[in-house]
Amino acid sequence: MPKGVPRARMRVYNELLFNNLESFLLACFPVCRKLLGARIWKRLVRAFFAQHRCRTPLFRQIPEEFVQWLSGSPVEMPAWLAHLAHYEWVELAVDTSPAVADAERIDPAGDLLDERPVLNPASMLVAYPYAVHRIGPRMRPERPDDLPTQILVFRDQGERVRFIVLNPVSARLIALVGTGEVTGRAALMRIAQELRHPDPDAVIAGGLQVLRDLRAQDAVLGSVQRDRP
Question: Which of 5, 92, 120, 168 is spaced 20 to 30 A from 195 at the CA atom?
């Protein structure tokens, strides 16, 4: 406390700062707050307030700082909490993402197999050791799942943030087409090889349907036409 500052005034200043900080966190992490309860939640936010040095002055980035701090925090919390907090933060990150597609290069009705599918740039492909989308008062996991939960989070044309829970093959397909360097067919052939699938044509047919479904939901925006001489 600075010299000459009355304790009562310093206490008011402290609470104003803390309450301001907590308000941004409450808006982003309602499920974490609900599951921890008011007392433990405030203790966690107090620790963040005291221990973490933010690297940005922007209020909307405070939740990201909280997620980063939480992943290495010495405060004893459930193992799934940091992953749940990241899952809640992703919605804000995608909602405020400045990324936009170059509409002039995209054919919305393009060939998703023989041209390069365009993944919505306002999206994130995330993976967690817990089924974070199911965590709630009646579902608090005791140990990580056998397989990671993979989710595509994206902002559709109506500016809504949407979530799609993926299976491993769909997640791999999105990761490949997300590079912007391969056609849909090339990505699916690679997946068929990785799986050592006896019928690559079946993989291609199933993958094409996945790409069409993603396009219908605005997760895939269309395709970039093949380079021509």
Answer: 120
pTM: 0.91
Task: Tell whether 27 and 124 lie within a shared domain.
Answer: no
Residue 1, in any domain of the structure: no
- Domain of residue 153: give its range: 103-224
Task: Examine the fold and report which residue of 42, 77, 112 is the final residue of a domain before the chain moves on.
Answer: 77
Distance CA 133, CA 126 (A): 12
Q: Is residue 82 part of a domain?
A: no
**Residues 162-166: contacts with CB within 8 Å, 24+ apart?**
162/217, 162/218, 162/219, 163/133, 164/214, 164/217, 164/219, 165/133
Domain for residue 84, yes or no?
no
Chain centroid offset of residue 47 CA: 25
- Segment holding 2, helix H or strand E: none
Q: Which two tokens stand for residue 162?
A: 């949407």
